[in-house]
Amino acid sequence: MTKPAVETNQKELVSKEEMLSLYRLMLLIRRFEESTYRKYREGKIGGYLHRYDGQEALVAGIIPQLRKDDYILCTYRDHAHALACGTDPRHVMAELMGRATGCAYGKGGSMHLIDPDNGFYGGDGIVGGPVPIALGVGYAIKYRGGDQVCVCYFGDGAFNQGGVHESLNMSALYGIPVLFILENNKYAMGTRVERSTHQSDFLLKARAYGIEAERMDGMDVLEIRSRTQSIISNMRRESKPYFIEMNAYRFLGHGVADNPQQQKFYRSESEIEEWKNRDPIHLLGRKLEKMGWLDDSEKEQIEESVKLDVEEAISYAERSPEPAIEALYEHVYG
Amino acid sequence: MSVMRYAEALRLAMTEEMERDDRVFICGEEVGQYQGTFRVTEGLLERFGARRVVDTPISETGISGLATGSAMAGLRPIAEFMTWSFALEAMDVLVNHAAKITYMSGGRVKCPAVFRGPAGTGNQLSAQHSQSLEAWYAHIPGFKIAMPATPEDAKGLLKTAIRDDSPVIFMEHAGLYAQRGEVPDDPEFTVPFGLAAIRRTGSDVTLISYSHMVGSCLKAAEVLEKEGVSCEVIDLRTIVPLDTEAITASIRHTHRAVVAQEEWKSVSIVSELASLIYELCFDDLDAPVERVGGPMTPMPYAKNLERAAIPNEKNVIEAIRKVLA
């Protein structure tokens, strides 16, 4: 029996159920991120807060198709990655609020979400930080002769750090199954790619290390979903790295402090608006509507169910205790 | 017991642990085909193959990432730095990742990696290759730090390091690699962390040191014995964890202390030890603690300048005379 399906650019099929589940995941991430800002303003979330608004397709297009024994690493803009890995939103919110029930028991915070049970080996506060770590995680896969993959997300700004280059070289040298996902959202904090990177063709750079590389539309979750499927299954068979540059955009500032006033120093409102016209959630929503798989009332239902999840996450986190003071000295050593 | 060199004892520890546990592997520059810059890993590639003895590019960040990430994913890597001076290239991976991942994850992910290689001063290697940087790592919560002074400890401490679930900074001393000594053959022989060794008992003054400097303290003790001065020599073996009990017990008995190491003297392990002694044994002391350390200069090349920059037994003897005066 053939499932109802949509043909994407790559002639691969994504079922209706899967499309709706990607839609819901991306909406959950968006609404979750919006709520983190409210909670930050209320003083319930501290530290730095980096939101993923606009980049949801980069995680939704890849992570849900992975196995639980695969590994995912990323940088500090990591709430979306945790949610896509299947980390309970309540445990993510509790971590953001520094509670004992957080996914890192309140020790990590926004930049250090982690959930090894779901394959999520962490956000990372250092832009190029996860890349050398992914090299080692990937080596462990190869060492054990497994067919898992390690997916490592990092940004365009990270590409000017030495460790990224060392790791690209070594992953190719040893045939390590790391899928490098360059989240090219055009800005390293407030510095546009062209102002920091003389050779801004990132595919050329990955290929210079002997790594197969391609570019994808970071706003089109179906394109990412279908094109990465064969890449990942090839990696499982052949144990080698692969590099994807995602043409993406950060709708908001780098962090909360990078407010609209601050952003005027480095980018225009019209540029932001132009990208928002290709909002990944709306793009998928329109496609679903066109297929007749999503009407207004179904949309409203999804919106309501996501809202409930976010409200429950907040309520759970706010009800949760802070870590016991003795926890200060716990887990310093292994 | 077998008599062997310090470098051979290290190799024996790695060989035994690799035989015992398939998760243990070695990575680093020239560790395989070249047989190790200091021959510490000689023969291991032939014995264990390229999967477990990994020759790497000159990429200390990459090497440290290979070790840290694979440890997080369940292996027990041993990363060799050709010298600890080169590990400066890898500080972010070591300090911000290896040392902290256990804490940041609330204990959900661990990093049982050993980072090892030669440290210390000497041989006219000058400013960028001749230095003792253990205080950098001791400042960071999360690392354990071992610095063996004898072949027996080289084997026993390295085996403990490999079995430990924390990242271990394992600093060998290039000046000790050729030193011979008796080493237990038992593959289950280990030396626990946090247990100092009393290398010589005495009643007038306690000398506290580790690594190569233990030898200088023993020489100083021998010289002063002829003058009727009785020195107790403590080899700390590990800086973290620190055997404060051994230190305080000895000082309660001798009432005088000299702390000595070939690192820069300011903001150093010897500073920390002196401070701890004042906190823990102030009422037991009959004289201020003397610190022996290097001058605050980069390591010079010229022989005479280098001699003046590396603390030796003469500096220890001077310090002992001061605390006895």
Mean pLDDT rating of chain B: 98
Tertiary shape of chain B: globular
Spans of chain B with pLDDT under 50 lasting ≥5 residues? none
Helix content of chain B: 25-40%
Share of β-strand residues of chain A: 5-15%
- Rounded to the nearest angstrom, the distance between the terminal CA atoms of chain B is 43 Å
Task: Characterize the largest beta sheet of chain B: strand count, sense, and whether it forms a barrel.
Answer: 7 strands, mixed
Largest interface, with Cβ-Cβ < 8 Å? A-B, 42 and 44 residues
Give the % helix of chain A: 40-55%
- The CATH superfamily name of the largest domain in chain B is Thiamin diphosphate (ThDP)-binding fold, Pyr/PP domains
Sequence of secondary-structure elements of chain B: EHEHEHEHHEHHEHEEEEHEEHEHEHH
State the main characteristics.
heterodimer; A: 334 residues; alpha/beta; Rossmann fold; 13 helices; 9 strands; 45% helix; B: alpha/beta; 7-stranded mixed beta sheet; 5-stranded mixed beta sheet
